[in-house]
Amino acid sequence: MSAVSDPEILANSAPTARSRLADLSLSQLVIWGLILFLCLSPFALIIAVSFGEKIEGASWEWGFSLVNYQRVFVGANWPEEVTFLYLQNLYYSLYYAVFAAVIAVLLAFPFTYLMTGLSRRAQSAWLVFILSSLSLSEVFIVMGWDVLLSNRSGLPMVFKETGLTAWLKEVGWFDTLREWGLANPRNVKFKTSVFATVLTMSYLVWPYAVILLYPPLSRMDRSMIEAAQTMGAGPWTVMRTVILPSVRLPLFGATLLLFVFLLGVYVAVSVFAEPAKQTMAVSVYSAVRGATLNAPFGAAQAVILLITASVFLVLGQWMSRRASA
Amino acid sequence: MNGLSLKGIYKDFGSARAVENVHLDFAEGELTALLGPSGCGKTTLLRMIAGLETPTGGSLHLGSRDITALAAHKRRFGMVFQNFALFPHLSVRENVVYSLVISGTSKSDAIATGERLLDLVQLQGYGDRRVGQLSGGQRQRVAIARALAQEPEVFLLDEPMSALDAKLREDMQVELRLLQQRLGITTIVVTHDQREAMTMADKIVVMSRGKVEQVGAPQDIYHRPENAFVADFIGKANFYDGVVENGKLRVMDTLLETNSPASFINGSDVRIACRPEVPSLGRKDIAGSQLNATVTFVRDVGPARDIHLKTDIGPMVVEYARGEEQQDFQVGQDTIVTLPLDGLHVFPEPRQDAV
Prior knowledge:
The complex is a heterodimer. Chain A has helices at 7-23, 26-50, 67-74, 85-116, 120-133, 138-149, 155-161, 164-171, 173-179, 194-219, 222-230, 235-246, 248-262, 267-272, 280-288, 295-324, and strands at 53-54, 60-61. Helices cover 73% and strands 1% of the residues of chain A. In chain A, helix 4 (85-116) packs across helix 13, helix 10 (194-219) packs antiparallel against helix 13 and helix 13 runs antiparallel to helix 16. The longest helix of chain A is centred in the first third of the chain and has 32 residues, at 85-116. By secondary structure, chain A is an all-alpha fold. Chain A is globular and about 70 Å long. In chain A, strands 1-2 form a two-stranded antiparallel ribbon. In chain B, strand 16 (288-300) and strand 17 (304-311) form a beta hairpin. Chain B is built from 10 helices and 20 strands. The two termini of chain B are 38 Å apart. Chain B has helices at 42-50, 72-75, 92-96, 98-102, 107-120, 136-148, 166-183, 194-200, 218-223, 228-233; strands at 4-13, 16-26, 31-35, 57-62, 65-66, 78-80, 154-158, 186-191, 203-208, 211-216, 238-245, 248-251, 254-256, 269-274, 280-281, 288-300, 304-311, 314-321, 334-340, 345-348. In chain B, 25% of the residues lie in helices and 35% in strands. In chain B, strands 6-7-8-3-9-10 form a 6-stranded mixed sheet, with helices on both faces. At the A-B interface, helix 11 and helix 12 of A face helix 2 and helix 4 of B.
C-alpha cells in the first residue's frame, strides 16, 4: 500500500490542517480579513458595478446586465449598428503604453549601465536625484511638457526664432513632418500628436525604468565583461553577446511592468493625444465622472482594461519562465 | 622569441601606489607564479598584463612589440578569473568556443575545436550542459578550456584554485601544471598560496606592498630567501633579533655560530630566520650551536611532529619527521637542540612596516 493512500496517514493529516487554522489567533484573523478586504473589495465592487444599469437622466442601479460589455465590444446599438469606438480606445491604450515603455527602457538601459560603472558616491547621488524626481506628480510633469511643446511659447517658437523651421522647409524635411502630423503649414507643432503623448509617457516612467534596471545591472558580474574582452570582444560585441543576454529577463520584466503602469495614464493622454486617439483610461474617467455619469459602463471598461493588463502579465510571466528554463 | 617583458611598470590608484617599478621577464613556455599576501599588487600586475588596467608608467613588451597601449580585446591573452566568470546564458560548449564564434570562425571549425578542448580538460560529453549544472572543479576546467580556445600567446590565471576545496585544489594544481607543460604556453598564475606556487611554477615572483621582493626558482626562494619577508612568507621559520659580534650572532645572552653574516659589520642589528626542519634534536654530533631546550608542546600532524621548545634564545618550533631515528618527546622533557652552521638565514634589521 502506498503511503499516500494509507488511511491512518490521511486521518492524521486532516486534523493537522484544522489545528493550523485554529492556531491563528484572533488578531491574525482580523489582519488577514482586513488585507483581503482592502485588496479585493475595490475589484469586487468594480466588477459588481459593471453589471449595473444606467437610469436615463439619473444615476444607476444594481443589476445583472451584459449591455455595458456589449457596448465596449460592438457599440450600444448592436445588432443594428456595430461600432468599435471603445475597442479603438483600448488599441490606443496598448499602442501608447507599448511604445512609451519600450522607449523608456531603451533610454534607461544605457544610462543605468553607465551609472553602475561610476563610483559608489556618484551612483548614490544619481539615485537620490532620480528617486526625488518621482515625487513630481503626473500633473506637474504634463504641465511642464505642455509649456515646452506648446505652439506659442515652447519648442515650436524656438524652431521658428532660430530659423530651424525655415531650414527644415529649405531641405524639404518640413513636408515629411507635416505628413507625420508634426507640423502645420506655418511651423512645426507637437500638440496634439502621438509623438508628444508617447514622449511625455516615456518621460513619466523613465525614472522607474532606471530604478528597476539598477539592481540587476549593478549586481552583474563585471568579470564576465572582462573575460569577454580578453577573448577578443570589443565594446559592442561585449554589449551584444554578454551584457544584453545577461539582463534580458530584467529588461523584459521592466518593460512589462511599465507597460501595465502606462495603460492607466490619464493626464498625459488627455492633454497630448488627439481627440480621435484617446485611450480607455480617459474613456473610463469620462463615463464615471464626466458628462455621461454612467458608472456601470465606466466599470465595464475598467474591467476590460484590468483583464488586458492581467493577460499581458500572465503572458510575460510565462515567457520569462520559458526563457529562464 | 615571444617572451613577455615588463619594464619599470607602476600603477597608482589616486594617491596610493599599487604596483611599484616592476621589471620582470617571462620566458616563453615558462610558468611563473606571482605570489604574495592579499593587497600586494599581484592581481593589479596581472590585470595590467591582460590589458584590463592601464599602467601609470612603464612599458610591456611581447617579443619586440610594445603592447603597453594595446586594448585587452586586441591583446587576446587567455585569462582565467578567480570566480571563473563563465557566461551563465551559454552552454558549456558555447562558453568554450566564444572567442572563436565572435572572431568569425566557421561553425564546424568552432565545434571541432570545442570538442578537442573539452577532451583536453576531461569534460567530454559536457558540452550541452548549462554552466549552473557544473561543480566548482568542472567550472574551472571550462574556464581553462575557454581561455585556451583562442590559442593565446600568454595564459593568465588569477587565483584559479581559490574557489575549490582543498583536495580538489591539489589535484588541479598538478593537472594544470601537466597541461601547461604539454602545451608549452607562457603562463602567469597569481596566488597567495605558497604551496600552490611551489607545486606549479618554474619561477616564483614574491611580491609585497606593490614591490617585487625576490624572483627565483621555487627551491631557491625556499632555501635562499633574500629577506625576512620572503623567509616568513614562503614556508615556516623561527625568527630571532640579534646583533653581529665577531662573525657570530648574539641573541639575548647566547652566541650562535653561522656561516652567513660575513657581509655584516660588527654591531649590526640583524634578523635571523631558521626553518623548522633544520635544527636537530637530542644530538651532539652535528657542527653548530647547541642550545638547551625544554619541550613545551607536541603537535602530531601525521607524517611529522612539530616540537615546540623553550630555548636559550626564545621559543622555537622544530619539525621532527617520522623515519628519523625515533625519539619520544614529552612535554616538560629537557633536550638539546643544534642549529647547523649553514642553517641560519641572516638579514638586515627589517623595515618596521614589513608584514
